[in-house]
Amino acid sequence: MASYLLKCAEIYFELLPIDVRKLAYHCRVQLNAKNIPPPWHQNNMAGTDWFQNFMPRNPQLSLRIPEATSLSRATSFNKTNVNSFFPIYQRLLQKYQFNASRIWNIDETGVTVVQNSNKIVAARGQKQMGAITSAERGTLVTLTSGSNDAGNFIPPTFIVPRLKYSEMFIRAGPPDCIGAGNCSRWMTKKEFIIFVDHFIKHTKPIKEEPVLLLLDNHSSHVNIGVVEKAKENNVIMLSFPPHCSHNLQPLDVGVYGPFKNYINTAQTAWMHNNPGETMTIYDIPGIVNESLPLALNLANIMSGFKASGVWPLNADIFQDSNFVPSYVTDRPDPTQEPDFVNVTENLSLNLENPELLDSAPELDISTTEIISQIETANEPTPSCSSQQKAFSPWKIGPLPKAPPRKTNTNSRRKRKSTVLTKGL
């Protein structure tokens, strides 16, 4: 039971306590166990006292509040996508002999005027506590910055939700920062070209020493104007696989997490120092000026580049356990020939009995049969002396699996990791 619950948590399909109680009841029924308490039959689930005793018996389990993870991120970060990035990146390193100071990563993040409250000191036993925020729903300001593994960073660019932009909007911002405005509050092609000019001004790439710019596949980054400007100024642009930035992008991995914590602290301090006033988007640059240098320190930057395998290069930084959340949607491509080895690798499961796969007929086994063998391999082996029916939680609650992919010849071309400035 405990191993089944851990496997469900690994693939991001965790069970609630009430679901665990229902599973326990069906397990007892499946085993034809005697002395099942009558309330279990009435409620079709185990009692709360059973769950309270079950958790201490399994210290590897705990009740946690999960972090919301989009389906795109969970499914797109898989071995196929990651393996498509590192070979291209390695070829660029060998061709241009980039060092740490010439490999840059840029990314956007959002800052709102409503902070997330941190823990506070209050009376014990009080059920509800409040914290002052400037509004119920915040206005977003997009922030774009970049850094390299040598610890250098580009002064940020602010995208404010105003059609008529004025420099006074960022007067309290970090030194040499720039800004732009649009009604969408997000980075668009027009604003990104402004940022590229800003990037070139500070990095000063030359033909003998071009710079490598790592960025995601956002539509604002992939347009002719940006690519042509990069080619003319010796900037080589390499895109990450889509929806993989949370693990592959150094700024996401090492910098923007601490930055959000510093922002929340600075916004809370601003509310205390300005009682009765409402925070606006014009106060955001000043708050960023206090918070961003704390997050963009050498330790955080180097940690982000190292943890993502970008610098120093480590194409094997991610293990099979990192790809487990993509198990639910990993299935063969209908347009390709089936490959038994690739299918089993993509399932990203830790098999205790790999000999089960070796005995399968080559290329004649379906994905369903593979999953069945994997689930069987994870099931506990019943004792020979036991007369009970062979049983495991996997038979009562099979792990979720997406249906086979559909072939759609009219779909648009999917984005992938690629060198945007080919021919440079």
Characterization of the model:
It is a single chain. The chain has helices spanning 2-10, 17-30, 38-43, 48-57, 71-76, 79-96, 189-203, 224-232, 245-248, 250-273, 284-295, 298-307, 340-346, 355-358, 367-378, 393-396; strands at residues 103-112, 140-148, 153-160, 178-181, 211-215, 235-239. With 424 residues, it is α/β, with parallel strands linked by helices. It has 3 domains: 1-68, no CATH class; 72-113 and 135-307, Ribonuclease H-like superfamily/Ribonuclease H (Nucleotidyltransferase, domain 5, 2-Layer Sandwich); 329-404, no CATH class. Strands 4-3-2-1-5-6 form a 6-stranded mixed beta sheet, sandwiched between helices. Strand 2 (140-148) and strand 3 form a beta hairpin. The radius of gyration is 26 Å and the shape is globular. Mean pLDDT is 81; it is low at 337-389.
Rg calculated over all Cα atoms: 26 Å
CATH arch. level architecture of the largest domain: 2-Layer Sandwich
| Distinct helical segment count | 16
Q: What percentage of the residues does DSSP assign to strands (E)?
A: 5-15%
What is the CATH class of the largest domain? Alpha Beta
The total strand number stands at 6
